[in-house]
């Protein structure tokens, strides 16, 4: 399994919004999950560009980073809304499982007629790539970027 130092990284499939950060990029979504914060898109939209970029750039890998990141997100949301964001009781982090390909990834691959992933391919993806496929594969997500990400990650 490849390890990933969590730093600023945007995927090509996010190109349509990274210039203005109107949507929450995967790197920020990963970091939010790491500190168990559910940030609403409406709250994200209230942040200025510099704050959004900083959320992508701040470290969030080690326990002290995760704690500091969570405090910073809470302070930003409070600043604009007078409320703290929701806390996730738990995070279903199936992207960290390298012994089994998550069902949502298999189902979304089938839905978009993408080739079935092998365990070797799944294990060789970087953590953030596996995270993106899981998030794009979840129900409730429109998923249009799933086949684009699949291709970007060299799986087609």
UniProtKB/TrEMBL annotation:
Source superkingdom: Bacteria
Protein name: Nitrate reductase associated protein
Organism listed in the record: Dyadobacter psychrophilus
